[in-house]
Amino acid sequence: MFTGIVEEIGAVTAVEPSGDGVRLTLRAPLSVSDAGHGDSISVSGVCLTVIDQGDDWFTADVMKQTLDMSTLSDVAPGRAVNLERATAAHGRLGGHIVQGHIDGTGTVREVRPGAQWSVVRVGIPVELAPLVVDKGSIAIDGVSLTVSAVSPAAEAEPWLEVSLIPETLAATTLGRAEAGTPVNLETDILARHVRRMLAFRTTENPAATAASTERGSA
Asked: Which positions does the entry assign to Lumazine-binding repeats (predicted)?
């Protein structure tokens, strides 16, 4: 479990084929300072497991499903990534609850620099649009952010906007984002649960109908 507060910008140093996935090695001096075998580290929003490590690096396997769902699909040595260690149970929840389970990817459409912050518009998949609300939480490349604007519900090509303060611009890879940059998206876990529960309220759903019948005959 993570909070979306990026601790350092690391870099991919090696990518090796591993079955239908890949094995990544990343430079991450802070992240490995107290990490152990089997620990979780968020890599640009993707939860990966440490399988080997050194003084300033760690290695993790990435399975095909994760490659298909995230921007790690075309990862190469030299790519900068946002890194966050799993949050401690006694720590502060500085951002929001982030699982490191990517819902899909989006693409930066526009970056509008301001005097104190930048507004970034990100195009998002149609199926994720209902899970994003104005002033709600979103994790973009593992960064916990507040949605500052959303497209209308009828928009054929939905988008969201976030406002990035100087600290976020300097401390994360989002400060380097430009139009066309692909990003990982993780919507709010509560929104995902609500959507799933609502799916079972329809009478066309066999499981919902069976459950209702059982309660009625009890």
From this structure: 1-96, 97-198
Percent of the chain whose pLDDT exceeds 90: 81
- Residue 30: Cβ-neighbour burial (10 angstroms; 0-12, 13-18, 19+): middle
The predicted pLDDT at position 89 comes to 85
What is the reported pLDDT for 216?
A: 57
Q: Which residues have CB under 8 Å from 1's CB, separation 6+?
A: 86, 87, 97, 98, 99, 100
Please tell me the pTM assigned to this model. Answer: 0.89
Under a CB-based contact definition with an 8 Å cutoff, are residues 35 and 50 in contact?
yes
CA distance 93 to 6: 13
Write b or e for each residue in 188-215: b if 16 or more Cβ atoms lie within 10 A of its Cβ, otherwise e.
bbebbeeeeeeeeeeeeeeeeeeeeeee
Average pLDDT in the chain: 92
Sheet holding 21-27: strands in order across? 46-49, 40-43, 80-85, 8-18, 21-27, 57-62, 52-53
